[in-house]
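seq as requested:
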Amino acid sequence: MKFKLSSLERKWVLYDVGNSAFTLLVSTLIPIYFNSLAKDAGLSDTTYLAYWGYAISISTLLVAFLGPITGAASDKKGRKRLFFTLSIVIGAAGCLALGLSSQWLIFLIIFVVAKSSYSLSLIIYDSTLVDVTSEDRMDSVSSLGFAWGYIGSCIPFILCLLLVLNAEKLGMSMRTAMLIAFVIVAVWWVGVSLPLLRSYEQKHFLERSEKKENLLSGLWTTLKEMARDKRILLFMIAFFFYIDGVYTIIDMSTAYGSALGLNSTDLLLALLVTQFVAFPSAIIMGRLAQKIRAEKLITVCIIAYFCIALFAVFMSTALHFWILAIGVGMFQGGIQALSRSYFSKIIPPEKSGEYFGFLDICGKGASLMGTLVMSAVTQITRRQQLGVGAIALFFLVGLFFFRRSISASAARREA
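struct tokens:
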């Protein structure tokens, strides 16, 4: 039977469509534009890369610190919509401001603010899954969110890409073209978010009297609760490792493709192919989740990524990179969507914001460790293939702890 979304579920899925446009912009056009600003200011390529890396790292650390705090504050009655709206408005305003920035340092500062706000909006967004649907529908709704996010984000991205690539033919400067691109993404982000912001109601919450006045003390209490619950603790350890592998493959794929001889156009096309493949794959994964337990599907996804990492060891041509891009697209949405819904089922719904804030730390910390390991192995062995292959170990460790989490869940149900 065809799975039909309710009105609220459909609006929730739409936010994935809205925010994903900013993700594509960050991974493609923004670094290129910052490079041009840096060169205009006389910065060397080495300095440009260093400052860009610092900006990414600062944003990551900010979200790791603010995520649990923001999540915990949003768990209070009537607060989640407010924090969600603020994170979207600040992020979109930052996106607009990027287009008006002509000085590289100001551009970087605004970028850190915009990207941090975007990441905080995702933490709150993920935590609202418990409010917009029932537990038995979470896997399907979460999968559809990622699916439509992949395909929907391509609409503004393709418009921006065509605009930037054809700026001279259209009689405008690159700076003007980028300004319009930033405006398109910001308007898209806010516009597609409005239906959810208008309709969302916080069903699970903590009464304000239930929260201790000392927020840090409350966070420490939650950490102890998580440590006592083996299902949650083991899953977060598993998530740390296997999502590390996923994010590292995504983050390093462009550099790896360049080393294999792909030009910028080929890399952008490969990215689009990944998005288009991820769309039907995530939908299929959501439908399978109606018949097969999410635990089994996540296990399949982890094993698939392990095989993808091994395949990368033997890559030597551009064709191999295209095969890798298709493979990543097939399982990327599934592993992220089902992980989100699985976590939503095992945590206290009234503290979902706080718990997802801590889960985000696992994702952020993992992405740093994965790129570090890949870079170190590549430098030591002088073989990029082995650097990518080392990521396969993360999937093995993640699989081990995930299966332990499943066992703990089964034991809890039997008890």
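The chain has two domains: 7-200, 214-415.
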